[in-house]
Design goal:
The structure holds 2 protein chains of 2 kinds. Chain A is of the alpha/beta class. Chain A has 10 helices and 8 strands. In chain B, helix 3 packs antiparallel against helix 4. Classes of the chains: A alpha/beta, B mainly alpha. Chains A and B meet through helix 6 and helix 8 of A and helix 1 and helix 4 of B. The complex binds zinc ion (ZN).
Chain lengths: 271, 80
């Protein structure tokens, strides 16, 4: 069975993670643009970062027969300065037309501020104008519920956003139901301590079906591990689910969502 | 998509995990209580939330995880 990792920040990971993912049958990975662990000091630094994830990182992945894709955006943790953010947005289109860039992400909210929301909305507009998929970061811990509601209300009220082309990431028991009900894709991050465990992800799948559900490990520079994705696959098998269901969650579902970009090469096996 | 396993089978599968998670939490409360200035720590609103959360666990109503996450979220009114 092949596996897709829909969210990993390989810029922060070592080559050993590529090796491990390759051994665990990961054939494609996606790298959303995010914070680097420190605030970048100029818009140009984002240009370099986008170049790194759209040009260099795919060459590292290719050595392990892994297709590397990325998403481009100004992330919510650095979106407080509106003018700075707009400068970054001004050169995003040149990256969005590259063959391995899947869309705009991970945009979203961090502390749920007015300025973060302005930049979120402007990037949604750019996605609509350029017919791009959207990948959304929901805030951490105590800010997640409120921030998720703010973005959901905006997107539903907008009128021009197709929920089938938007994925909300880092969803948990208190945020997934309202998103799923409105037709959005829901990604669940398996992360030590602060997000979901493998057990809770499978609980959510049993409750809300496999439909429009995605799992990722969101490996980055903090305590995280790409192998938690495979731990979750194993948990699903331990819980007695069929190979067909497991393949739908860890391969066919991400193929379907990401395939809407027209650029994602892996194809679903159940067509 | 129901659980393919029965409830008693799930108890067998998860009992030790549940036992461990509760003991870890209890031991952390003990650790805090036994350290200097425990009285100040005891007033920490985060610990108060966890004491509330433990009541949710022991009750009979479902959706415990969702309700605990809501308890630990910032309330609706507040800054924006
Ligand atoms: Zn991320």
């Amino acid at each position: 069975m092949k596996i897709i990792e829909p969210h990993v920040h390989m810029i922060a990971r070592t080559v050993q993670d590529y090796e491990r993912m390759a051994r665990m049958h990961t054939v494609a990975i996606c790298e959303p643009a995010f914070w680097a662990g420190y605030d970048r000091t100029s818009p140009q630094a984002f240009h370099d970062y986008f170049t790194h994830i759209s040009e260099f990182e795919p060459t590292r992945a290719a050595q392990y027969l892994i297709d590397h894709y990325c998403w481009i955006c100004i992330n919510p943790k650095e979106a407080e300065d509106v003018e700075f953010s707009r400068e970054v947005i001004s050169f995003m289109p040149e990256f969005l037309t590259k063959p391995n860039v899947l869309g705009i992400g991970e945009i979203g909210l961090n502390k749920n501020t007015r300025n973060e929301m302005i930049i979120f909305e402007e990037q949604v507009e750019l996605a609509l104008k350029m017919d791009q998929l959207i990948w959304i970061h929901t805030p951490h811990l105590q800010d997640k519920l409120k921030g998720t509601k703010m973005m959901l209300d905006y997107l539903v009220g907008h009128g021009g956003v197709d929920p089938a082309r938007v994925c909300f990431d880092h969803t948990e028991e208190h945020t997934l139901p309202m998103l799923h009900e409105k037709g959005f894709w829901c990604a669940m991050t398996v992360y030590p301590v602060t997000k979901n465990s493998p057990e809770r992800v499978i609980d959510l799948v049993e409750k809300f079906s496999l439909d429009r559900m995605i799992v990722d490990a969101s490996g980055d520079w903090g305590p995280s591990d790409p192998a938690t994705l495979h731990d979750t696959l194993f948990q699903m098998r331990l819980r007695g689910h069929s190979d067909k269901s497991v393949e739908q969650l860890f391969y066919n579902n991400p193929c379907r969502f990401l395939g809407q970009s027209g650029k994602f090469k892996p194809q679903p096996t159940d067509v | 998509m129901k659980s393919p396993k029965s409830a008693p089978e799930l108890v067998d599968q998860f009992y030790l995990h549940m036992r461990s998670a509760l003991i870890e939490t209890a031991a952390a409360f003990d650790r805090i209580q036994g350290a200097d200035d425990a009285a100040t720590a005891w007033e920490d609103p985060r610990l108060e939330e966890l004491r509330e959360a433990s009541k949710i666990i022991s009750g009979d109503d479902p959706e415990r995880a969702r309700r605990i996450l809501e308890l630990l979220s910032v309330k609706e009114e507040g800054d924006a």
